[in-house]
């Protein structure tokens, strides 16, 4: 039997100020900060994990906060909206809570028989709260500021904005084991595993949308759940057979991951084993899928051999001038990224404060 994903494990986005991010997701939305660690590719940057009582797969939103980084631009080739699950009948509470803290409520039409409202986080990330009769009844953080009967129960779904559905739909169904669930207007829904909240993905087709630019307020990747190491390796083999590059398994100390670029039309994906909470600190396996819409921190040292050999081969003055210009641009980007990392290291000397409904309430959405 071909390996398949069970649904969403977590969604990672890029934030700005780390304290403001903590205030909003824990102090306002009432999610638990279940883990605070660092970005393994940029150890000077925090990596926050917000979720339910024990950080169950499917409840987690994680963030890389880079203060001072540029804002992302919405468009095609990205996860445009992250939808969270609340119990049926909880939307009135959240409307009042948003109004109380002067946050704008975005009216969202009902989809697939479910009511929803929209909001924007302080960094511009689009969120939705969807009232579902299938919302989990367990796992609510007992110390949350939000009453348990209205509390967020985890991720509902993610909405991918695309100019064409075919490449990403083929990837979801043929490589990851998703099933088409239905379509409404320009939205196509797919589900995996047992279905329901946490196992659904929507493809919203906007043929004329400009390409997204990854930055603050953008989703960095989605992590898909795999049941174990064998399934993770099986998914990697499927991608390699489809001509999609994939790395070997990388040990990240408390999880294992495989990285791969997605198609040019889609956002970045990732997949992880289910059933292992972050509180337990056991190893889990992840499958990262990086798309064309974003970029990683840049280091010119990986290109030194190419630069040196190219300069040696360049015989005409025009080619040498072009290569010198490329070297200058590469070095400038690296230098700026190092300054930004130095700023992150300064943040680590300033402890975060756990505050409820403070520090961000001036934001009007």
What is the element layout, followed by pairings?
Elements: E1 8-15, H1 18-28, E2 32-39, E3 42-51, E4 60-65, E5 78-87, H2 91-100, E6 106-111, E7 114-120, E8 126-132, E9 154-162, H3 166-175, E10 179-184, E11 187-191, E12 200-205, E13 219-226, H4 229-241, E14 250-251, E15 255-261, E16 269-273, E17 284-290, H5 304-313, H6 317-348
Parallel strand pairs: 1-4, 5-8, 9-12, 13-16, 15-17
Antiparallel strand pairs: 1-13, 2-3, 3-4, 5-9, 6-7, 7-8, 10-11, 11-12, 14-15, 16-17
Question: How does this model look, in words?
Answer:
The structure is a single chain. The chain is α/β, with parallel strands linked by helices and 365 residues long. It has a single domain (8-290), classed as 2,3-Dihydroxybiphenyl 1,2-Dioxygenase, domain 1 (Roll), CATH 3.10.180. Helix content is 24%, strand content 32%. The chain has 6 helices and 17 strands. The strands form 2 sheets. It has a 9-stranded mixed β-sheet with strand order 2-3-4-1-13-16-17-15-14. The chain has an 8-stranded mixed β-sheet with strand order 6-7-8-5-9-12-11-10, covered by helices on one side. It is globular.
Radius of gyration: 21 Å
Order the strands across the largest sheet as they lie in space: 2-3-4-1-13-16-17-15-14
- Termini separation (Å)? 47 Å
- CATH hierarchy: architecture: Roll
| Mean pLDDT level | 79
What's the CATH C level? Answer: Alpha Beta
- Output the structural class: alpha/beta
CATH names the topology as 2,3-Dihydroxybiphenyl 1,2-Dioxygenase, domain 1
Quaternary structure of the protein? single chain
**What form results from the Cα inertia axes?**
globular
- How many domains would you count in the coordinates? 1
Count of alpha and pi helical runs: 6
